[in-house]
């Protein structure tokens, strides 16, 4: 009976528990794919409620999931062809560093490096280097 209960518990695990087991690079990849699809709900779901986004090294630009959703919602609405091409990725523990080329914001192309800190299956902090 205990064995059956254990199996039922395993099958009923919440998505958050699965996310905790997901490798940091997989979380960041899901975030990139949602960004490129301009799927705001899927994009925001990869971030912690207490997300902090910095301009490297320490200028806080955004804090909290509500601010993230508002800012990126406007970005997606105003730039329907926005796209981030992954040029390179480094993974070190719970840190993922992506070099990206962002296009679709008018005629300009932006090259940026994003440093993601992933904790418990969610992106907790991001530092952008422009």
UniProtKB/TrEMBL annotation:
Domain SnoaL-like: 28-125
Entries under Pfam families matching the protein: SnoaL_2 (PF12680)
Keywords: Isomerase
Database matches in Gene3D superfamilies: 3.10.450.50
UniProt key word Isomerase: yes
Molecular function in Gene Ontology: isomerase activity
InterPro entries: NTF2-like_dom_sf (IPR032710), SnoaL-like (IPR037401), UCP030561 (IPR008317)
Keyword Transmembrane helix listed: no
Protein name: Steroid delta-isomerase
């Amino acid at each position: 009976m205990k064995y059956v209960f254990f199996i039922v518990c395993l099958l009923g695990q919440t998505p958050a528990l699965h996310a905790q087991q997901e490798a940091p690079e997989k979380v960041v990849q899901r975030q990139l794919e949602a960004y490129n699809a301009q799927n705001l709900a899927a994009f925001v779901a990869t971030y912690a409620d207490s997300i902090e986004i910095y301009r490297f090294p320490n200028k806080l630009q955004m804090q909290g999931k509500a601010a993230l959703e508002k800012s990126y919602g406007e970005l997606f609405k105003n730039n329907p062809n926005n796209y981030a091409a992954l040029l390179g990725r480094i993974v070190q523990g719970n840190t993922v560093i992506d070099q990206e080329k962002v296009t679709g914001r008018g005629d300009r192309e932006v090259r940026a490096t994003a440093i993601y800190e992933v904790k418990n299956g969610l992106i907790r902090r991001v530092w952008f280097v422009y």
